[in-house]
From TrEMBL:
Pfam families: SBP_bac_1. It comes from the Bacteria. InterPro entries: Bact_solute-bd_prot1, SBP. The lineage of its organism: Bacteria, Bacillati, Actinomycetota, Actinomycetes, Streptosporangiales. CDD domains: PBP2_TMBP_like (cd13585). Transmembrane segments: none annotated. This is Sugar ABC transporter substrate-binding protein.
Length: 412
């Protein structure tokens, strides 16, 4: 743990001129720390930052929030990992009144991320860092195969992967995550683009629907038939990215936040040949996830909520969001993506792919439940089964029964 204390404050209960902020180790946090003197000068407030790794952060929240501690005012949290748990346990303050600030402009936030930081129709967090799934591809291999543009549909992706695999025996047509849990987030965009989801509108399991079965089968076949030889079924992003950056795959679907691994010459043998495109459209269109990987919320037990909001308002305002994005941190504000300055540090085709993703993006990339890790294990099993050539539909039916039981248990 590192503690950056900027000034004093009374440190006790009640309203204080010291705002106590707990943040994760992240580039976003480092950028905020550098800009803090400006905020303190503007407001006369002091900001005390506790900065922790993800595991330490979870441990501290588990202890302090469960105890109803008031010594955290602002908290950086993962909406899709612990957001539902925090909101259900009333750890996060309702921000309905705060977000009405006209100059700050809540309507500027993208719908997907804003939806994921909302609980029971009330905003409980403000998204600060976003991710979308895009298609990474090799420009040289497309040209060699006579393909004039990256695939726009999933049918075209399969055809292009097949063509390249046939003409380049040592190169996979496609690579992606294969691990039961790790693959769930990236599989989600395939699921949505086939017209499915993990849970339906009534809160019931949807992994046994025809759309889900088609998505599982498609994803599995793409890797089984056109993926790396002897592909393992425990790959997360580091393993899949390594195959792509070593020049061993033509197409790769992955989070845009990892793009520098592919374009950095020190990390990638194909850095000068990497292109980016929007997620290919399925029967329901192109529906990649557009998620907030991190958000800021106010501890509901805080006795310094007014000043806590002042910090959030500043840290998530248009000026700070633009500065963050210029440093490579994708923001959740629409205006920043429309600003040439906001996309100036991203590859042009990646910026265009992200912009397309935010239009129809879905605000979650995993089941929105309390016990996320357990849910991912259940809904991820048909991915592995499909990759290994088992009956994807039968596996989806089994997962559907298990997931519905999981949802029923969690609702009790």
């Amino acid at each position: 743990m590192s503690l950056t204390a900027c000034g004093g404050g009374d440190g006790g209960g009640g309203a204080s001129d010291t705002v106590r902020v707990t943040l994760a180790n992240h580039v976003w946090t480092e950028n905020v720390k550098q800009a803090l003197p400006e905020f303190e000068k503007q407001t006369g407030l002091k900001v005390e930052i506790t900065q922790l790794g993800e595991d330490q952060l979870s441990d501290q929240y588990n202890v302090k929030l469960n105890a109803g501690s008031a010594d955290i005012d602002v908290m950086m949290y993962r909406p899709l990992q612990e957001g539902k748990l925090f909101a259900r346990n009333k750890y996060l303050a309702d921000l309905t009144e705060q977000v009405k600030s006209e100059s700050w402009d809540f309507s500027d936030f993208q719908p997907g991320p804003a939806q994921s930081t909302t609980y029971e129709s009330k905003p409980v967090g403000i998204p600060i860092i976003t991710e979308q799934e895009v298609l990474y591809y090799r420009k040289d291999l497309l040209e060699k195969a006579g393909l004039s543009a990256p695939p726009k549909t999933l049918d075209e992706l399969k055809a292009a992967a097949a063509k390249i695999k046939e003409s380049e025996p040592d190169v996979a047509g496609f690579v992606a995550r294969t691990g039961k849990s790790a693959a769930v987030t990236q599989f989600s965009s395939f699921l949505y683009s086939f017209g499915g989801d993990f849970v339906d509108q009534s809160g019931k399991s949807a992994v046994g629907t025809d759309a889900a079965k088609q998505a599982y089968a498609y994803y599995g076949e793409l890797i089984k038939d056109y993926g790396p030889a002897n592909v393992s079924t425990d790959m997360g992003w580091p393993e899949a990215m390594a195959i792509f950056t070593q020049g061993k795959a033509a197409f790769y679907t992955e989070a845009n936040s990892l793009y520098k691994n592919a374009t950095d010459a020190d990390k990638s043998k194909v850095s000068d040949q990497v292109g980016f495109a929007p997620f290919p459209a399925g029967p329901a269109g192109s529906k990649p996830y557009n998620i907030p990987s991190w958000a800021l919320g106010i501890n509901d037990a805080s006795e310094n909520t007014e000043n806590a909001w002042k910090f959030i308002e500043w840290a998530t305002g248009k000026e700070q969001t633009l500065a963050q994005q210029k440093s490579g941190v994708p923001g959740a504000r629409t205006s920043v993506w429309a600003d040439p300055e906001g996309v100036s540090t991203f590859p042009e085709d990646l910026a265009e792919a992200i912009a397309a993703s935010t239009e129809n993006g879905v605000g979650h990339d995993r089941p929105l439940v309390v016990k996320v890790a357990e849910a991912r294990e259940i809904v991820g099993q048909p991915i592995v089964d499909a990759i290994t050539g088992k009956d994807a539909a039968a596996s989806a039916d089994t997962a559907h029964t298990a997931f519905q039981q999981f949802l029923d248990d969690e609702a009790e």
